[in-house]
Amino acid sequence: MSKPTSSHAYGIGIITVIVGISAGLAYYQMFYLPESLAKPSVSEEILEPLEEKLIEIILNSADPNQQDNFVPKLVNIQLGIDNKIIWKNVDNTAHTVTPDQPTEDPYSGEFGSHGVIKPGDTYEFLFTEPNVVPYHCEPHPWMKGTLEITKQRF
Ligand SMILES: [Cu+2]
Questions:
Q1: What is the 48 CA–ligand 1 centroid distance (Å)?
Q2: Does 127 share its domain with 141?
Q3: CA of 141 to the centre of ligand 1 (A)
Q4: 63/83 same-domain check
Q5: Scanning 37, 79, 98, 138, which has the fewest C-beta atoms within 10 Å of its C-beta?
Q6: Can you give the pTM of this predicted structure?
Q7: Dihedral (Cα; 55, 59, 63, 65), 10-degree rounding
Q8: Over the stretch 81-133, which tens digit does the pLDDT of each residue have?
Q9: Ligand 1 center to 127 CA (angstroms)
Q10: How remote is the CA of residue 118 from the centroid of ligand 1, in Å?
Q11: CATH code, domain carrying 107
């Protein structure tokens, strides 16, 4: 006598769970997922900085006895001023720009040249957030540089 009632309640319970899961999935796909995949909004002046910062990989950089390789070695960068950095390899050996620790910019993604920068080639990266990034050259680990990215100073 109580059996039909309990199986009825059981059925409603299952439907409730299914509806709940579908609603959750729909929310995840329509709202949560696009938002988490979308790039963060970055102000126009940071996306289009006034200047580019040039770092040269100078001749004979592969020589461990040569002091200078990434020139300049320590670079202060201001967001909105010169936060687009270009490495130009003016050496006759291929080099890399590789962060000492994996470094990601929320807008530009993973920092570092994937593969080598051949003689005459460039590698560029746009930083959009303050950070301190020590980096090196993978084949010649004595080649070291540091970037200090700060907010614009007025
Ligand atoms: Cu190198």
A1: 29
A2: yes
A3: 7
A4: yes
A5: 37
A6: 0.75
A7: -80
A8: 999 999 999 999 999 999 999 999 999 999 999 899 999 999 999 999 999 99
A9: 22
A10: 10
A11: 2.60.40.420
